[in-house]
Structures are given as C-alpha cells and as structure tokens.
Amino acid sequence: MTDAIERALGEINFGPDGLVPAIAQQHDTGEVLMMAWMNREAVRLTLAEGRACYWSRTRRALWRKGETSGQVQRLHELRLDCDGDTVLLLVEQTGVACHTGRRNCFFRAWRDAAWKVIAEPQIAPGRLYPGGVEPAD
Amino acid sequence: MTDAIERALGEINFGPDGLVPAIAQQHDTGEVLMMAWMNREAVRLTLAEGRACYWSRTRRALWRKGETSGQVQRLHELRLDCDGDTVLLLVEQTGVACHTGRRNCFFRAWRDAAWKVIAEPQIAPGRLYPGGVEPAD
C-alpha cells in the first residue's frame, strides 16, 4: 500500500510551494464542487483513507474535509492531468461542499453584467461549524 | 461593457502572482476539461471575446485557447467560487481540450495501484500543432 502510494506521488508535479491544485467533482453528476490544494501528505492520506484530505494554506495544516462539519468527501477515483500538476478527485459528497452551506462553491455566475448568486445554502453555516470556526483553503 | 468587466474583475481575488486557477468544464456534459491560469487581462479578454483566454506561466504570455490548434473554448458562463479565488468556465469545447489530442487533460486514473491511461487521443498532436510548438500552461 505504502509503496503504491509512493508511486502515485512520484508522478505528481508539486509546485515550488509543494502544492497542487485539486478539483473535487461529484462522481455521478459531474458537478464541480470546489477547488482546494494538496501537498504530498494530503494526497497520501486521501489515497490511504479513501476520503479527501487537503492542505489549508491559511491554516497551514492538513484538512480532512468534513472533520469539523461532517461533510465528508469519499474518494471515488483520483485522476491526474497531462502535465501532472493538477489532480481531479471524483468524490461522493456527503451533504454540502461549501462552507457557506451551499452544495458547491461556484454559486456566483456572471450574468447581465453582474455577479448573480445562483444557489442558496442548503444548511446554515452555524450548523456546519457549531464552534464558529470555519475552515479556509 | 468595459465598466462591467471591471466590476467582474473587482470580485476576483487574484493571488500574489496575479493569477487565479481556472477550471474549464464542458457546459452540457459536466466533463472537466482542463485547469489553467488566468490573470486580469485573461479574464477581461475571455469576457470581452466570449472565448477562453488563459495566462501561460511557462511562456509568460496570454494564451487564447485554440489560437494555434483551432480547439477553441466558447464561453457559456463564468462562475466564481465562495472565496473569489478560483473561477469555473462553462464552455463549449471545439474538438479536444488537451494538447495530447485527448478530449480532456485528466486521462490518468489511479486504479489498482497504478496510473492507468483511460482515454486515447482523438487527434494526433502533430495535426493540432503543425509547427511543432505546443502550448503549455
């Protein structure tokens, strides 16, 4: 297992900051849920545990998606792009992906010369983070 | 038009390097085609021209997607995430998105402890770039 994961990591071209962009997509609907960042350890944990783990740049810490909110992303498949510098996670999203309580983070659309909010929260952020501490990427 | 675009830009949080990650998704199928980078001018041109324009980090130049290969991405809608630091382009992809000739760039999947190529080129790269110069992000 560990050797295999090391082989997986060997093909990923992490940037000068040790990170790669990671896109999370709902595996069956194709909905793009969010974009976050991963370092080597985040990829390792994601593959080992079968759930998305990111690197929070603001908190400078590993961030097991859903560890506070319960909104876990179970890994369906990990994919790598042609240059090896971006990963795509096909996931099964429990609940909502966005810290605002929306299903996905891309809820602003440029329409008629303005940013329009095109999705409403499905759950109040206060219920996602009872302690008041919201994660940030 | 210009004022509107300036308002659009005002909500986007470009990074210290002046760039934001940009995810291109086929608007009707949900297929994630590629990830690239945009600076302010790339977003401006994308909105003004209705086709995806990125910033090539390696060439340090604006990169109108398809200008060499003809594989244009017509903009269907621009979306912005909760933090304003990632954009999602819903596009109509002409032909293929990947410089390898594949429909999308995420053609390697981690399966059975190895990276498996899960899509074949639909067109030879030599036909995409007759001059032999392939773009890079």
Question: Can you characterise this structure?
Answer:
Two copies of one chain form a homodimer. Chain A is α+β, with helices and mostly antiparallel strands and 137 residues long. Helices cover 17% and strands 33% of the residues of chain A. Chain A has three helices and eight strands, in the order αββαββββββα. Chain A has helices spanning 2-10, 40-49, 125-128, and strands at residues 20-26, 32-38, 53-56, 61-64, 73-80, 87-93, 108-111, 114-117. In chain A, the strands form three sheets. Chain A has a four-stranded mixed sheet with strand order 2-1-6-5, with helices on one face. In chain A, strands 3-4 form a two-stranded antiparallel ribbon. In chain A, a hairpin with a 6-residue loop joins β5 and β6. In chain A, α1 crosses α2 (40-49). The longest helix of chain A is centred in the N-terminal third of the chain and has 10 residues, at 40-49. The mean pLDDT of chain A is 94. At the A-B interface, α1, β1, β2, β5 and β7 of A face α1, β1, β2, β5 and β7 of B. β7 of chain A pairs antiparallel with β5 (73-80) of chain B.
